[in-house]
Amino acid sequence: MSNRDRWERSKRWRMRTMLCYNAALGAWSNAASSGLGGGKGGGGSGTGGGNAVRDAALKAEHLLLEMAEGNDDKDEGGSPSLSEGAKAQHRPGTLREFVRPDTVSFNTVISAWAKSGRRRGTPPLTAEGKIAPLAAGRAYDETATAASERAESILRLMQELQYESDAESDTESDSEMEFDDIFDGYGSEHYRDEEERDMLKPWKTAIRPTASSYNGVIAAWARSPCPDAPRRALALLNEMAEAHRSHRRSHPHSRRGGRGGNGGGRYGGRTARGGGLAGPPTPTSATYCSTITAFKNSSDPRAADDAEGVFARMLLGDLDHDDDDDGGSSSSDGGSRDWGRGGGMGRGGLRRRGGGGGRG
């Protein structure tokens, strides 16, 4: 069997293994949503349902982190980071050695945590289907807030791994056509085997946050009863918008980040298809809607104005009119007071572009 045939077969195995791996994560994500038999929409059933959905999301997270550690035998403290059983599964020669989580894996776990939070206004139920005591509801609300924190921590981990991946990709090529040249360039069988071993490992999978990554975390905050939840959701929306504006200023000829949100490099490297430059993910309608929902669920007396401010940002387009020097910048609140060309919106009001009159 030629080196090319072995590579193609190994690639098919890895693809199938990744599909199965992500399917397993998806199963735990669905379990977090249903409460392992509880009510639809993450309600679960009473405190037992709360424990069930939390445990399902935790299992998805543990499976993700175990695979993310891969072949790293030691943590920062120098002690073994994986159990002996896990390290045995990653030993040379096993298929699992070549499998690492991808963007879909991380997004699935983010979704698991987002689904594990009870929908606002949905009371937890006991095993008999009755409304649980107030104490149980409070405990469930605390779980929902913790779920939002865990979802955002997964997003931050994606960002850290993205930096590492981009640093390594500067010295790597993503062209499979170079395999034959590498193999043929070594006359020694020893070096051929060693190089083949490296080539059988997949090219560093680009793990980078997509619009779905951000949307999942924002949706988790929208479900959280935490008083600061709307601000946390808005901060993520602002983070997406600011990253995209910065990228467009530094890469004026680059392609826009797709609605799916996969950008190349640290917002400027090669895309998965090898063409052009792509930016970070742009906010989608789901991003805005979830942020507005977070304000809708808030008891803050100014939440309605903030929600309208986010809606106005969506109508004006955060990203389409932000390259002009006279355009304003976003503020930390939903009102984003000087957004758009020659005008902006205040809390509770919208001024039309071009300096037109606004509503009082």
Automatic annotation (TrEMBL):
User: Any idea what this protein is called?
Assistant: Uncharacterized protein
Q: Give the signal sequence positions.
A: none
Q: Which UniProt keywords apply?
A: Repeat
Question: Organism's domain of life?
Answer: Eukaryota
Q: Where is the composition biased (Basic residues)?
A: 245-258
Q: Where is the composition biased (Gly residues)?
A: 259-278
| Bilayer-crossing regions | none
Q: Where is this region: Disordered?
A: 70-95, 242-284, 318-360
InterPro entries xref list? PPR/CCM1_RNA-binding, TPR-like_helical_dom_sf
